[in-house]
Design goal:
This protein is mainly alpha-helical. The chain has helices spanning about 10, 20-35, 40-50, 65-75, 95-100, 105-115, 120-125, 135-150, 175-190, 190-225; strands at about 40, 80, 90-95, 155, 170.
């Protein structure tokens, strides 16, 4: 006999729709990158869902579509409304940490896969930087294994796609069928497109390293300047 609150994601695997996946991922992402503006209004969530960068696929969602997804996620106990006496509009937060016992690093990896589709370990490490810093790819691999071992599993490894050198990983919050469609799309993409994707990941990693170097040089200069004050 099912206990109150049992949902499909607890028993038979996840079955979130594409809009629900995007809304939940945005709430997780923004809790990391814009904590001062969190929890979020429907308007802010909609803007995050429709971003042109860091999103695959890019979406054009209405506020009503986002509100419907929020209501559905609330029924699933994955999102809740945060009441505040000073708030003029309703604001929402995700409950993934509590609902599925995910620490920050695992939340970041899951959100990235939900926002950007299948990713290699290297891509995950580089593109997660704004949400969570990983010292090496081994740390990412351990998180992927843990997410895949959860019940129901939240991540799976895809077969090696033609023309690629590394396997990619995909989230399962949209269900196994959605993951299969993503795998087929990856397999049918041209080797040239795969190469471009790898090159983009390399460039993103290089930008991350350059930013770290600039930050270090800035700190060194400030320390040097203070010696003469």
């Amino acid at each position: 006999m099912d206990t109150p609150g049992d949902t499909a994601d607890e028993q038979d695997g996840f079955d979130l729709g594409p809009v629900e996946v995007r809304v939940l991922a945005v709430l997780i992402e923004k809790s990391f990158v814009t904590p001062d503006n969190y929890p979020m209004s429907v308007n802010a969530i909609t803007s995050g869902c429709n971003q042109l960068t860091g999103r695959d696929p890019v979406m054009e969602l209405s506020e009503q579509a986002v509100q419907d997804a929020i209501d559905s996620l609330t029924d699933r106990r994955l999102v809740s409304q945060r009441d505040s006496a000073s708030a003029r509009v309703a604001k929402y937060e995700h409950l993934v940490r509590l609902r599925h016992s995910l620490p920050p690093a695992e939340q970041a990896v899951l959100a990235l896969l939900m926002l950007r589709g299948p990713q290699t370990v290297g891509e995950i490490r580089g593109r997660c930087e704004r949400m969570h810093h990983f010292d090496d790819t081994g740390e990412v691999e351990r998180i992927l294994v843990h997410l895949a071992d959860k019940y129901p599993p939240m991540v799976q490894t895809l077969p090696l796609a033609p023309g690629t050198k590394e396997v990619r990983h995909v989230h399962l919050l949209g269900g196994s069928e959605a993951a299969r469609v993503m795998a087929e799309g990856l397999a049918s993409s041209s080797p040239a497109a795969a190469a471009r994707g790898s090159r983009v990941a390399e460039l993103e990693d290089e930008v991350r390293r350059l930013r770290q170097q600039v930050e270090w040089l800035t700190n060194e200069f400030e320390s040097f300047r203070k010696q003469f004050e």
